[in-house]
Fold these 2 entries.
Entry 1:
Amino acid sequence: MEVVYWEGQRLFLLDQTKLPHQTTYVACSRYQEVAEAIYSLKVRGAPAIGVAAAYGYALAAFNYRADPGLPLEQFLDQAERELLATRPTAVNLRWALERMRDAYLNIQEKSLDNIRSVLLEAALAIHNRERKLEEKMADFGASLVPPEANILTYCNTGALATAGWGTALGVIRAAHNQGKSIKTFVPETRPVLQGARLTAWELHDAGIPFTLITDNMLGYVFLHEGIDLVLVGADRIVANGDFANKIGTYGLAVLANYHNCPFYVVAPSSTIDLDLEEGKEIPIEMRDPREVRELGGQLVSVKNCAVLNPAFDVTPHHLVTAVITEKGVLKPPLEKSIRRSFDEEGVQR
Ligand SMILES: CSC[C@H]1O[C@H](OP(=O)(O)O)[C@H](O)[C@@H]1O
């Protein structure tokens, strides 16, 4: 099933807010609709929002109508700003939009038709690049999974969150396909339930055994079920290996460390931000309080009560066993192995 696809000058997005009960698509004919879909989590997941934003930038070129008051370049700059402003934490958004802007600036033949064609090609190239490297990354990760393993993952890091295969969930999918006997524990992941609604849906669809748990059962499963490894995704990994991921990841990392359980981060190089040295510099998205006060649109607490709703937290690099990217398994000292993975051939920033 396609999560994001382009057809006839429109971008189609699988509406993830309707899953698992409805499989419906949002058809975006304007870049502003793509921005709204990213902010409202109709499309979500660091790599997926980068891919969607790339198409959104290309869509802006199709939206543009010659206007002496607003040249195309300024219109595209406006689209880039609006798309970038949707969600501040996942660096993939900035990574994809920078590549789209570079694609535009490198166009020699500046007819509107050619610009539209080149930008659409650039967005498709980003989509295909991410999809290809996710499968490679999954194989690196699957090599770390024992023949029999209890795995704890978090949030949703599958096809829905990426360009098609997944990051941490892609490793689980690859290990299952290799015949390994794995049991996956899936925390619901409050407040918007990416685990219960999306990861459970993906694993069920793939025929991969899993057990749904509530977020307050993490300690229990370490103690009573025994966890062999933890696999999580990331929204931004910085130069020293600190990383931002769905709220609750930090607590999971502390528990894994306490139980001497390997803790792996799985993410493509488009999630790595070498411009930041430490995790405390990562901007953390604070979302609508109604996401916490309500469940399925029903108030579950006191009306208009005070709420804290950070969408992400930061895990320090010393709790990370390794970072798995398309370049391989990056082991501590992470600052050194992350930089080396960029210095080697071809990892594009
Ligand atoms: C494969 S990265 C997915 C990453 O994105 C999720 O956040 P959100 O659902 O808010 O976009 C979560 O942090 C996942 O680890």
Note: The chain has eleven helices and 16 strands.
Entry 2:
Amino acid sequence: MRLMQEEVIGYESEEETEMESSSSCGSIGELGFQENSMKVVVVGYALTSKKIKSFLQPKLEGLARNKGIFFVAIDQTRPLSDQGPFDIVLHKLSGKEWQQILEDYRLTHPEVTVLDPPGAIQNLYNRQSMLQDVADLDFSDAYGTVGVPKQLVIEKDPSSIPDAVKKAGLSLPLVAKPLVAKSHELSLAYDEYSLQKLEPPLVLQEFVNHGGVLFKVYIVGDAIKVVRRFSLPDVSKRELSRSFGVFRFPRVSSAAQSADDADLDPCIAELPPRALLERLARELRRRLGLHLFNLDMIREHGTRDRFYVIDINYFPGYGKMPEYEHIFTDFLLNLAKSKYKKRSANLP
Ligand SMILES: O=P(O)(O)O[C@@H]1[C@@H](OP(=O)(O)O)[C@H](OP(=O)(O)O)[C@H](O)[C@H](OP(=O)(O)O)[C@H]1OP(=O)(O)O
Ligand SMILES: Nc1ncnc2c1ncn2[C@@H]1O[C@H](COP(=O)(O)OP(=O)(O)O)[C@@H](O)[C@H]1O
Ligand SMILES: [Mg+2]
Ligand SMILES: [Mg+2]
């Protein structure tokens, strides 16, 4: 059984992955040179135990070590400045206090790359602001268009939903998503009156038929990988006319992994064109100010080139991205290397 299909769509590695050896101006992270003359890259990490398990797998750590990259756990109970010194800080922890600590650290330690800036990440934790850059981009090129499904935010009063939906001109069915992106209790509503049962704040988004296949576009700096996942099935006009109510659905991405994709219709399963994804990812990286995220993308069923982004996740489950170990370590190395070069260039 094939669980997920994947396709590498390129990794821009402009420079060699090994650190340069001939310099006398100190080490990255001030840890000196390794015996084999590679500079050491120290990556501090502040992640949940779930994330540590899925991301910091032995293969990643081993490969990293061979390239001179060392992962060091950040102790949240101690000042960051007393730890490390780090070249890069990787983080995905919630809490305002922690975010402030990171913001302060960025100001006092400009030599450290904090992946990514907490403020930029915060935009992804609200399902309205998350898709704003995609909407603003209004992407269109020879390979297709990329938009956001029509959506509406309900801040408070659930009784206002039927009117608000009519006023906004949203078509049923609607996907109801908690405004807070970390919450994954989604529902599909066949009629707007039943939505009054749900608890705002919510985003109501038009459901777009896409043949039950979703594209997960993983981005790590300049590198992109796209995998197919099973998704919610289409809703026919007939089904819509006969159905009422709100149906809660479980987290789709985890359920999707056990699907067999052997019989997929090629019109549905064909990956979005590389050139389109590369341009889209480049633009979004810049606009979002982020290096580490993924996009959930769907193709409108019956079209070849009409795509929608429905979700963006910060520092997603890279452990599920094939070959993430190589991609991630190359990314970290290139980041450290380009920073080091810049610093060297500024020296007298
Ligand atoms: O744990 P995983 O591997 O399922 O990763 C989750 C992501 O799955 P994906 O890589 O897109 O399939 C997941 O993506 P979806 O929202 O399910 O599309 C989220 O990024 C989730 O983070 P959070 O709970 O929203 O903060 C991610 O959870 P964390 O690992 O960051 O806790
Ligand atoms: N507008 C939409 N049209 C069709 N299906 C959708 C839409 N929005 C979400 N879905 C389905 O619901 C799933 C979960 O929605 P998503 O916005 O990705 O939330 P989460 O952050 O919980 O992954 C998607 O993977 C997809 O299967
Ligand atoms: Mg999703
Ligand atoms: Mg999500």
Note: Confidence is low (pLDDT under 50) at residues 1-37.
